[in-house]
Please model this.
Amino acid sequence: MQVIVKLFAMLRRFTPANVTPGEPFTLMLPEGATLADVLAQLGIPEDEAKVMFVNGRAHALDYALQDADDTGIFPPVGGG
Amino acid sequence: MWLLRINMTERSYKLEEVPEQYKGLGGRGLTSSIICDEVDPQAHALGPNNKLVFAPGIVTGTAAPTSARVSVGGKSPLTGGIKEANSGAGWAPAVAKMGIKGIVVEGQPAETDKYWMVHLTWDGAQPKVEFLPADAYVGRDLYEVFPEVYAQFGAKVQVAGIGVAGEFKYPNSGVVFNDMKNQPTRYSGRGGLGAVMGSKGLKFIVVDAAGAPGVEVANPELFKEGAKKMREALMEHAITKPQGGLNTYGTAILINILNEAGGLPTNNFREGRFAGAAKIAGEAIFETNKKHLGKELYNHACSPGCIIQCSNTLYDKDGKELVSCIEYESDWAFGANCGIDDLEGIAELIKLCNAYGLDTIETGVTVGVAMDSGVIPFGDLEGAIKLLHKMGKGTAQGRILGGGAAMVAKLYGNPRSPTVKGQAMPAYEPRAVKGIGVTYATTTMGADHTAGYTIAPEILSVGGASNPLASEEGKAALSRAFQDTTMLIDSSGHCLFIAFAILDIPTGFQGMIDEINAVLGTNMTGDEAVAMGGQLLKRERAFNAAAGFTNADDRLPEFMKYEALPPHNVVNDLPDAVFDAVHAK
Model:
């Protein structure tokens, strides 16, 4: 299956080589892959991914993805 | 320590020993207590009986890191209720170092349209006040005026004051403070306190702390321990540490995460996602500066002693400074909320607010309401700039806009007024983030995000986790807990952003309690300190009740019950009982 991945803030340094940092890109994953598998495939240490959205809702590492899911991954961020 | 009373009817001043009941207070705890004790809740906000109180926090002026904060309090001409507006500013430690716990501005000159400045200095033994005419500075752009004020009083003074918006008595007007480059960019923005200052004929309070003795600390050993715990927590946490989230991307980092969550109010709260979000977010600011300056630029401190350093500056392609600073709220208010995705355009709108003395949140939401009401189209940057100039000149339409978002919605017949108690909502959509909606509705401040920042657990996973889309009664307790703790932090003198670290790192929270106890000579536990916050909130509620507020004012606007917000297509479906539960105990 294919999912869309968007990496934000410092996590942009893990963008694959053929993609402009900040642009969404697609990732091929096996059926039943989780958010943890996305991180592993991109080389992102789990403790750096603080908030992970799938289709606009935050989920845990063990969340199982589906084809065409739209994900956004954030490091710890704050503001006001 | 003293309370400094400044009487603008007589242009006189008095130094009073701090009364016993105020000795344990600072910041918002002090400003709200004084307003509750001395201002008739039914007084007109712009009449002679309102007061304007300035108070540094309890630990402000000490070596506590990230503690140069000032609270400005009064009855708000925007909401008609009690107001505290908080800013980071070198002005705050300067006042604290003179042994001044609070400055109470009272009375009103008989002559209207004449403005005065206060020059506050240390005369060797105590603070001294001179009143000087401010005529030369009235009616002018603050970016032009500030250098002249510094030329008049010296490069090291600290300045608090108002722009033309305060002179016009706009409910949109804020109280301005200088930043560390002596520019007029820091604001106690919310609630129209600039108008209160203007109604007292007071243009500037210029503070020169040269020779001042510094802040007395009752227990220096405990203070050292507490400040060390605080420093370590701030240096450790990924959000607050050097080159961490805030230092790299500033608060505007939130644009992308709220957008992803579907809670970024867009086009006057019609939608929760903005197509242009990535073009205006903190990452875009960082990358734009990198392109224009040829290097990575990390952010700076708004005030002395801050180790988080989250303020940014945007530079143009020639390396010229466009504005400082593009905060999340300002970026959102003129950006997503107005359908504008031009970062340099947003920078110009923010700069105009700074120049005229306007609250960027209220003004941005006002422009959004104007767009939604057909005055100009959404996305019309040039049109928005023209509206700001009208406000700055005080034209008829400018005065309507200066009345704030709720006023403009009323005058243009638009039920989509994203306001509570007459104050514009900030950058989080209450239908998509339920807890912040409860805060907006129930805080004494009117729609206000910092008053009970449930965004931390609901969106950022700081201090726990809470599903933002869940319409559950637990949101009442969540908002209440944040409101109580925030009252404590607002009184301490620390920037609210320490919360990101101390909510996750308990020793940091204990550090704040140690610092407070050390300065005051008290020995409160953390729970007792938070409970003190809760008691102070009760006093604010009582003021608002006496001013005429009821539970019916603790509600989100009706349109949010029946307009489903994309992308999650959610409405406000929390029962009234949940809002009423917040303050019920």
User: Anything to note?
Assistant: Helices of chain A lie at 35-42.
